[in-house]
Amino acid sequence: MKLYQLALGVLLVMGISSAQAETIRVAIGTQDTTINCATGGLLIRELHLLEKYLPHDGKYKNVQYDIEWKNFTSGAPLTNEMVAGRLDFGAMADFPGSLNGAAFEKAGKKSIFLSVLSGSTIGSGNGIVVPKDSSVQSFKDLKGKTISVPFASTAHGLLLRAIKAQGWDAERDVQVITQAPEIAGSALQSGKIDAHADFVPFADLFPYRGFARKIYDGSQSNAPTFHGSLVTGEFAQKYPEIVVAYLRAAIEANRLISAEPEKYSELIAKTTGIEPEVVYLFHGPLGLQTRDFTWKPEYRQALKTSIETLKLLKKTDVDLDVNSFIDDHYLRDAFKASNLDYDAALKNYSKLPLKAKDATTGKAITDFKRVTQIWVQGEPLLRSYATPESAFVDLKKLTATGKKVRVVYVQDRNSGIKLLADQAWYARDTKGQLNAFLLKGQAEDWVKTNGGSVVDFNAAQAK
């Protein structure tokens, strides 16, 4: 009888303990098609990385986790869900991130900008495109034209800076209208707009799909831009260890895509519908933007600029304090737990390096100014070449043997950004060497100084 009572007591205690076990909701808002947010959302979700790092000791010993994911196409509705308490984390760019902080402050709450995910200290990633057959070759040709842009976005800020740099009046010299990317794509194809300014990845996605040309890259504005991760202040205060776990998962996602960019570009493409060739353009070695989690001074300034611009546009009247909005101590803890040196990373401005041998000579590539890459259908890795000349010789051979080439990339000689080779202009010097540029005018300027001739992609392949 005593043995029975003892067993019954144990069962009762276990039942009470089980009933009292805490369930913690971890709700994360993503922007899958904004591929620069991938390491803070899509990849963590698809690879189940958060589960790997969530704490299960101390006060979390008997905790069960309810992980929720919700995808958005822009930052505004994601912010609304966070303010309403239906999401704990979110990923977005600097402009919508500023509006996130302002919305929380308006509601008497607080959000925290945890980390950068991907960005460019020179502004590359955002851009302006025109219809493929447009006569426009540079931004200065857009005076008096109609330009669409998603209002209050980071691309809107880029457009305003480009207008100001020309000395134009934004209300008289151009007609700026608001359009979401999916609307602008159709408008470009039907000729209803003269140009469209947009954020990652649309200024490169539209040209890749063949109905637009990029005539302005954010790097020309030299204005830093980034995407990053945020968390509600209430969640961070209550569960700081989970915040660190989330950041460790993001760091792991970054490590994986750095090691195998082709493989994970395919995964991102499968999930988003954004072609892997465009994903690699951003996330591959020497890509358009750098996946950099640290709060470099340029990114802090980008956030400050976004707040000031949004106030100018009358999209907010909140004086958001950047220094209190950004809190890097969670990120520093995550770096330490991942055996990484945050301060060393903070000082590192390098893009993801290309560690490759020339596909023709077999020699290690050490100079990246004229690097060219070819992605052949059916090959898991890209072929890399030290020069466009050697790459284009190989390109002819591939085409002659019936192999399908998915994409060719070159590096802009001035800015170092990665370009779609068929969209670039080339300066061929007197020795036959090719240098790639985004704009025809840039190639012409090179020729004026160095001699030679300006050619397009097709002509560049002919000797």
TrEMBL record:
Residues annotated as signal peptide: 1-21
Gene3D superfamilies in the cross-refs: Periplasmic binding protein-like II
Keywords from the UniProt entry: Signal, Transport
Domain of life, per lineage: Bacteria
Pfam families, per the entry: NMT1_2
InterPro entries: Solute-binding_3/MltF_N
Residue stretches making up the Solute-binding protein family 3/N-terminal domain: 23-275
KW Signal (keyword) present: yes
SUPFAM superfamilies: NosL/MerB-like (SSF160387), Periplasmic binding protein-like II (SSF53850)
Keyword Transport: yes
SMART domains, per the entry: PBPb
Task performed by this protein: Part of a binding-protein-dependent transport system for aliphatic sulfonates. Putative binding protein.
Record family assignment: Belongs to the bacterial solute-binding protein SsuA/TauA family.
Full protein name: Putative aliphatic sulfonates-binding protein
